Amino acid sequence: MRDEAAILSARSLFILISVVPMARPKSEEKRDAILAAAVRVVADQGLGAPTARIASLAGVAEGTLFTYFATKDLLLNQLYLALKAELRDAMMTAYPAGGPLRDRVRHIWDRYVDWGVRDPAKRRAMAQLIVSDRLTPETRALGSEGFARIDGVVREGVAQGLMRDQPPDFVAAILTSLAETTMDFILRQPDSAERYRAAGFDALWNALSR
Description:
The protein is mostly helical and 210 residues long. The protein has 2 domains: 47 residues, Homeodomain-like (Arc Repressor Mutant, subunit A), CATH 1.10.10.60; 134 residues, Tetracycline Repressor, domain 2 (Orthogonal Bundle), CATH 1.10.357.10. Helices cover 76% and strands 0% of the residues. The chain has 11 helices and no strands. α2 packs across α7 and α6 packs across α10. The longest helix is centred in the middle third of the chain and has 21 residues. It is elongated. One of its GO terms (molecular function) is DNA binding.
């Protein structure tokens, strides 16, 4: 009887495996394609754009999109984190640690402007996500973690008496506002890019320094 039960159990398991498809491992390539498509769609159509459009642009079924991101809000939160990480890496690559304070602020400024000019869609998507109430507090906190070095530059400048003591959020708002204006002018008049980049930085430094 035990042998028969074992045979039946083995057969049942075989049938179950044959009938129920095994879950396929998730593809990093598909995940990246969905995020890349989300950038374009959000930039062009806003946060209310349908997930079907994102899936279509990514070349996957809408059901596949929800395999990678269970809800649209989760997709938007993950998109925000991906863009923030990319921006952080752009700003911190070849960062002149230990250099003069003004040079370090200029490095951050130049890399930020370069990032926005290089891919305007990412910049537009980020601008919409930042003001969205669909981002969770946890997501916002995670997105800010990688920018501690920038906050440190400001604190160092204040301690040295070179910069005004302003709230970090206010400093970030000034940086973003001036960078957005500079990017707009560079995209409209690329031949004058260096002129606008330098003028934008001078405005930033004058706003922050004593």
